[in-house]
Amino acid sequence: MLENIFSGLLNSLTLLNLLVMSLAVIGGIIVGTLPGLSATMGVALLVPITFGMDPATGLLALGALYTGAMFGGANSAILINTPGTPAAVATAFDGYPLTLKGKPDKALITALVSSVIGGIIGTLFLIFLAQTLAEFALRFGHPENFWLAVFGLTIIGSLAGKSMLKGLIGGTLGLLLALIGMDPVSGYPRFTFGIRSLIEGINLLPAMIGFFSIPQVIRMIEQDKKFITSYKERRGIYGKTIIETLKKPVIYVRSAFIGTFIGMLPGAGGNVAGFVAYNETKRFSKNKEAFGKGNIDGVITSESANSATVSSSLIPLLTLGIPGSPVAAVLLGGLLIHGLRPGSKLFTETPIIAYTFIVGLVVANLLLLIIGLWGTRYFVKAVTIPIYYLAPIIAVLAVIGSYSIRNSMLDVYVMLACGIVGYFALKVDIVPGPIVLGLILGVIAENGFVLSALIASSGAGMMALFFTRPISIILIVMTIVSIFLPILVHRLEKKARGTTADDKTFKA
To answer: N or C: which end of the chain has fewer CB within 10 A?
Structure first.
C-alpha cells in the first residue's frame, strides 16, 4: 500500500498533472464563488473534456476542480453574504460579520487555510480507513438517516440569533417548503398550487440564493452606503492570521472528523456537515455569544468540515461503487468513461491510477493554498466596489445562477419569492440560516421516515425499526443531549451569576 501511495504521489507531481490541477483549482474557485454554479455542475462540465486525457490526469483534474469549488463558495459567503455553494452557508454566519468589521482579508485567509487542512485530513481518512468507513456507512439505513436529520434540526438553537422562538419559526418555514412537491407515498402533488413544475419540489440552490442574496441587495440599497465596508490592506495580516488559525488544532480535527463522517453518508454532504460542525464548536466554546458576530472559530469549523466531505464522499464510491454525493455520482461517470470500475478491483487491477487520484487530492489542496493566498488580495477588493455597481451585479448573478441550474424560469421565480420572504423575515429578526437548514433536512427526514415506515409495514415493526438499531439509539441519545444540554448549561450559568451577585452584595 505504501508503495502505491508513493507511486501515486510521484505521478501527481509531474509537470503536466500539476499544470492541469492548477487550472482546475482556479476553475473550481470561480465556479464555487458564483452563486448557482455548484461543484456538481462544474465537474459535470469538465467530465467530457477529460475524455481525451490520460485516466490519471483526467481524474486529478476532476478532483482538483471539486476541491477548488468547495472553497470558492466561501468567497461570496464572506464578502457579500451570498454563499456560492450550499456547503458555505454556515461560513457566512461569521465570515460576513468579519467583513463588516473591516476584516474581509482575515476571514478569507482563515477560510482558505481551514479548507486546506480539512481537505487534507479528510483525504488521510480516505487513504488509510476507506474500507472500514465504507462498511460503517453501509449500516446507515433509512431510520438512521431520519434520526440524523432530527439531530440536525436541533442545531436551529445555534442559528436562531437573538430569539429561539423566531429561530423555530424559521426552521418550521423551511420544513414547510420541503413538503412542496410529490408525496413520496401516494405520488399525489401537494402544496403545488396547480403549478406542474413544482411537483419536483423546491430546489435548494435557487431557494438558498433567494434567502441570502435578494435581502442583501435590498439592504445594500436601503443603507445608502457607498461600499459594503471600509477596507485598508494591513501589513503582515497573512502571517498573523495563519498563525492564529493554526493555534486551534482541536477545532480542525473535530470539524474535519464530523465532515468525514457526514460526508460519506448518502444524501448528507457538506451543507449538513457545516451546520453540525458549527453547532458542536459553538457548544464547546467558552464564548458562545461571539458566534454570528464575527468569530473566527465559526469560519474555521465550517470550512474545515465541508472541505473534509470532498474526500469522504468518495469513500463509498471508490470502495463500493456507491456514490455518496451528487458530485461523486458525476465522478462515477468520469471513472466509467476512462474504463475504470469502482470497487475492490479498482485498487487491485489499477492501483497506481487509484492512488494517484487519491493522493492527488492532497496535492490539489496544497495548490489551492498557494493559488488562494495569491488570489485573496484580489478577491477582497470586491468590498471596495461601489454599491451602485455591486448590487445590480449580485442581482444579475442570482438570476443567472438560478436559471442555469435546470434552465427553468420557475427556479428564478422561486429564488425571487424566497428572496422577498427572506427580506421581510429579516425585518422581524428571523435569519435565513434556520430556514435553509429546515429545507435541507426536511427532505432527508421525510424520505427516511416514509421509507422506514414502508419497511416496517412489511413486518419489521415501527418500534423495532426506529428504536432498537444501535446507530439509531446513539443518534437518539445525541438528539436528547443536544436539546437539553444547552438548557441545563444556561440554568447553571444563570445560577452561578446569581450566586456571584449575592456574594458581592454580602461583601458590600
So the answer is: C
pLDDT 10s digits, 463-489: 777 777 888 888 888 888 777 766 676
Q: What is the pLDDT of residue 479?
A: 82
pLDDT above 70 covers what percent of the chain?
A: 89
82, 80, 88, 27: which is closest to 304 by C-alpha?
88
507 band by pLDDT with thresholds 50, 70 and 90 = low
* Mean pLDDT for the stretch of residues 371-399: 85
Task: Give ∠ CA 80-277-475 in degrees, rounded to 5.
Answer: 140
Mean pLDDT for 41-53 is: 82
C-alpha cell at 352: 497506481
CA-CA distance, 168 to 179, in Å (whole number)?
17
User: How many alpha carbons fall within 13 Å on the CB side of residue 45?
Assistant: 14
In this structure, are residues 248 and 278 in contact, taking their beta carbons and an 8 Å threshold?
A: no
Distances in Å between the alpha carbon of 349 and those of 17, 112, 354, 375? 22, 36, 9, 40
Cα(427)–Cα(432) distance, rounded to whole angstroms?
A: 11
How far is the CA of 463 from the CAs of 142, 306, 459, 466, in angstroms? 14, 34, 11, 5
Q: What is the distance between the alpha carbons of residues 331 and 165, in angstroms, rounded to a whole number?
A: 42
Instruction: Report the alpha-carbon distance of residue 430 to residue 112 in Å, rounded.
Output: 29
Confirm if 321 and 343 have CB atoms less than 8 A apart.
Answer: yes
3-state secondary structure 303-364: HHHHHHHHHHCCHHHHHHCCCCCHHHHHHHHHHHHCCCCCCHHHHHHCHHHHHHHHHHHHHH
φ, ψ dihedrals at 440, nearest 5°: -65, -50
pLDDT for 504 equals 52
Angle at 443 between CA 441 and CA 445, to 5 degrees: 65
Cell of 406: 435546470
Question: How big is the CA angle at 158 (ends 175 and 95), to the nearest 5 degrees?
Answer: 105
Give, in degrees to the nearest 5, the angle at Cα 181 between 205 and 447.
85
Mean pLDDT of 210-232: 81
Q: Structure pTM?
A: 0.81
CA-to-CA distance for 422 and 435, rounded, in angstroms? 9
pLDDT single digits (tens) 145-188: 888 888 878 777 666 666 777 878 888 888 888 888 887 767 78
